[in-house]
Structure formats: structure tokens, C-alpha cells
Write a structure and sequence with these properties.
Distance between the termini: 23 Å
Radius of gyration: 20 Å
CATH topology: Neuraminidase
Number of domains: 1
Largest sheet: 5 strands, antiparallel
Helix content: under 10%
Strand content: 35-45%
Shape: globular
CATH superfamily: TolB, C-terminal domain
Strand order of the largest sheet: 2-3-28-27-26
Number of strands: 28
CATH class: Mainly Beta
Number of helices: 3
CATH architecture: 6 Propeller
Length: about 425
């Protein structure tokens, strides 16, 4: 729950600086919710609007605050316990996945850093394998690295880093930084996407304490989506490559906390999910060089309550493709292109941590678009599990896999089922 208190704090700053004339509210807004308790061990069988019956299985448990999972060519999966460990789930797509008891060694972990506060999230976050992993064993990962100490804020200063390493058994070797951000008090989340052209897109949030306008400046990586070559090089057509004083890696800017990246299979457009303040969560179609507004533009309100903003899209900024109100706390996203569940083809799945500021109401949100990336309808799935969903990925078997961000996190597999199975299983989330 620490993440949402942190969001509230930064929204106070944004409202005071850029958007509202109302007085700032207390940072510690009371949290409410329902217990994050699973209805049973599963499997769960449920109906869906366009994929009539699906089965949901728990394929790994006994984990802590999961952030993502990434499939390897042999069907194994890498799993990140946020800020702490990288784990290997063997035969993740098989009938009996096995979680390696030993975490992968040489992974950044600063959980015992001096001056560490509960709102500081240091260590590993996202991870993705190289397209040629089968032969070169390379992976890319992001992490927040402590740098020093700010006595005035009584907080660690840190930087967000994109690194590359080689996976040698159960350890990382040949670790190399590819992108290093500026030093800030308070660093947020990050995501990685590798596109078909072998380019790395990296999204980094702008939750820097005391510097809310960093998202609007191009001299830093925060509140940005960046693009670099898979070797760390700067593409020749990056929009700020030749701009004096700008980070040449920047692709788009003006983001608050973009925690999901995916490519629409029909239009080829890169889209990003983004945490807004209360009621201001977004899905953005990313165009190079564009400003997406934060903190000067938002559809959201203050966590303690406030009037709707008069101008949610300021002049010179790009408006969102889709907004959620109530907020859904959107995290990882994935378009479904598999064969196992054809009723869901081209649907976007969004990992939602909670809905309307109520804890224990996380879910997977399925969004159906037309061929112009315009929303037609949405469906809420798995809300009966009462979990904070953090990421969702399509597996090589054509099924969906999702992870939850809880003190006792789980990995779930979502695949096809039939009416006979629905009748036999009592638990239907």
C-alpha cells in the first residue's frame, strides 16, 4: 500500500504548483478496502463475454511483491520480486511449473541501505530477454540505484538504470549499464519493451520528490519514454537527438508513472498505460517528440477530493487515447495475439491494482478496440481474487500469465475451458 501513499504526496505538489487553487489536503489519506484473500486454492473457472469459459490456475506462490515475468525460449520464466530478487520458474508453461528455491545471484538489492524509507523502492524492477537469448543468454533489466543522502529530505538519493547482463545458470555476469538517469530524491517505476526492430523502449515515472516538473523538462529521463538501440546506441531519428541540453534517448515526455508498454498488433502503434492521480489513469498512444501533459494536464483530481480540472488537455499537449474514472491503477499491459483463446484476439489486457481507491479490488481489465485504436468496450476479469495485479504477459503457449503485487504474491495462468468444466468447479471468481 506504500505506493498509493506516495502517489498522494506527489499529487499534492502537482495540484499546488500547476492545476488547482484549492488548498492542499493532508498527505495521509485514510486507506479503505477489503481483505486481499483468495477465495480458495483454485483452479477457478469463469465466463467471459467473448471467450465463453476460461480456467485460471495458480502456477506459482510463496513469492513477495511481484513486478513482472518474462518468458525464455525454453518455456521457463524469469520473475521479479520487486526491488529484491530475480527468480526462475522452470517449465512455466507446463503442467507442473517448479520455482527454483535459489534466487539468481548478482541482482541489485539495496534493501539494507542506510536511510532507506518505506516509500523508497530501490533495486530491480522490470526484466526482458534479448530476442536472441537462446544463443547469447542476454537479458535487460531496470533498477533504482542509491547514490547518496539528502539531509534536508532525510531520504536516499537514487538514479534509475537500464542494464544488460548475461544469465549464466543462476547468476548474472557481465553486467553493463546502458542508460543511467539523473540523481533524484524519490525514483518511481519503470518498464521495458523490445520492438520487432530490436529497439529498446524504456518508460520511467516522474515521482521525484520536490521536482514535479521534471516530467516537462527534456534534460532528464523521468516522466519519459525513451528509445535506444539494443546495444545502447541512440537511433538517428530520435526526436531530441540533436536538441542541445536534451537527453537524446527521449521518445515522449510529460508522463506521470507509465507502468505498461505494448504494441498494438493492428496499427503498430506503441501504447503506454499511465498512473494518474485520482480518476486520471490513462492509456496513451505514443508519437515521437510529443508532450503528454503531466503535471500541467490531467483528467484526475486530488486524493482528498477536489473539483474536476477545467482544462484536462493543455495546448501543445497530446490527449490520452483512453481514461479511467474511477481510477484502476493500471500497471503492465499486453495485447492478446495467441490462438488458444480466439475470442480475445487483439484485446488489450491491463493489470489493475485497485479500482476507485478501494484496496482489494484489483483485476484484469480487457479492452476491445476497433482497427483505429478507439475503445469499443471493456470487461473486468478476476476481480473476485481480490489481488493487486502488477503485470500480464502472453505466454509462448498462447495463454495469458499475470502476477500480483502482494506480500504473498502469486502467478496465475489463464487458458481456455468448457461448459463441462464450469459445472464441475465450485469456485468461480
Amino acid at each position: 500500500m506504500k505506493h498509493f501513499r506516495s502517489k498522494a504526496r506527489h499529487w499534492v505538489q502537482a495540484g499546488a504548483v500547476a492545476l488547482f487553487s484549492t488548498a492542499a489536503f493532508a498527505a495521509d489519506v485514510p486507506e479503505v478496502g477489503v481483505p486481499a484473500e483468495l477465495p480458495g486454492p483454485g483452479p477457478y473457472v469463469m465466463r467471459s463475454a467473448e471467450q465463453p469459459v476460461v480456467k485460471v490456475e495458480i502456477v506459482a506462490k510463496g513469492l513477495e511483491n511481484l513486478y513482472t515475468l518474462a518468458f525464455l525460449p525454453n518455456g521457463d520464466a524469469l520473475i521479479v520480486e520487486r526491488g529484491q530478487r530475480l527468480r526462475l520458474l522452470r517449465q512455466a508453461t507446463g503442467p507442473n511449473p517448479v520455482l527454483e528455491a535459489q534466487p539468481i545471484a548478482n541482482v541489485p538489492n539495496y534493501s539494507k541501505a542506510e536511510h532507506l524509507k518505506p516509500i523508497d523502492v530501490l533495486g530491480i524492477q522490470d526484466v526482458r530477454p534479448d530476442p536472441d537469448f537462446a544463443t547469447n543468454k542476454l537479458i535487460y533489466f531496470t533498477f533504482n540505484r542509491p547514490v547518496g543522502y539528502d539531509a534536508k529530505a532525510d531520504r536516499i538519493t537514487a538514479t534509475t538504470v537500464l542494464a544488460r547482463a548475461r544469465l549464466d545458470g543462476l547468476r548474472l555476469v557481465d553486467v553493463k549499464d546502458l542508460l543511467v538517469g539523473e540523481v533524484m530524491v524519490g525514483t518511481g517505476g519503470s518498464r521495458i519493451l523490445i520492438d520487432p526492430k530490436r529497439q529498446l523502449f524504456v518508460a520511467v515515472g516522474a515521482l521525484s520528490e520536490g521536482d514535479i516538473q521534471s516530467a516537462q523538462r527534456t534534460d532528464n529521463i523521468y516522466g519519459k519514454v525513451m528509445r535506444i538501440g539494443i546495444d545502447g546506441s541512440i537511433p538517428a531519428d530520435n526526436p531530441f537527438r540533436n536538441t542541445k541540453g536534451a537527453r537524446p534517448e527521449i521518445w515522449t515526455y510529460g508522463h506521470r508513472d507509465p507502468l505498461g508498454l505494448a504494441i498494438d498488433p493492428r496499427t503498430g502503434r506503441l501504447v503506454a498505460s499511465e498512473h494518474g492521480p485520482q480518476g486520471g489513469d490513462e492509456l496513451n498512444a505514443l508519437l515521437p517528440g510529443r508532450n503528454y501533459g503531466w503535471p500541467n494536464s490531467t483528467y484526475g483530481t486530488e486524493y482528498g477530493g477536489s473539483r474536476l480540472p477545467v482544462g484536462p488537455v493543455a495546448a501543445g499537449t497530446e490527449g490520452p487515447t483512453l481514461i479511467w474514472s474511477p481510477a484502476i491503477a493500471p500497471n503492465g499491459i499486453a495485447f492478446y495475439t495467441g490462438m488458444a483463446m480466439p475470442g480475445w484476439t487483439n484485446s488489450l489486457f491491463v493489470a489493475s491494482a485497485r479500482r476507485g481507491q478501494i484496496n482489494g479490488t484489483g483485476s484484469l481489465i480487457r479492452v476491445v478496440f476497433n482497427d483505429r485504436l478507439e475503445e469499443m468496450r471493456q470487461e473486468v476479469l478476476l476481480d473476485g481474487l481480490h489481488q493487486r495485479f502488477k503485470d500480464v504477459r502472453q505466454g509462448p503457449d498462447g495463454r495469458l500469465y499475470a502476477v500480483t503485487d502482494e506480500p504473498t504474491s502469486i502467478v496465475v495462468r489463464i487458458g481456455p475451458a468448457d461448459e463441462a468444466m464450469l459445472a464441475k468447479v465450485a469456485t468461480k471468481p
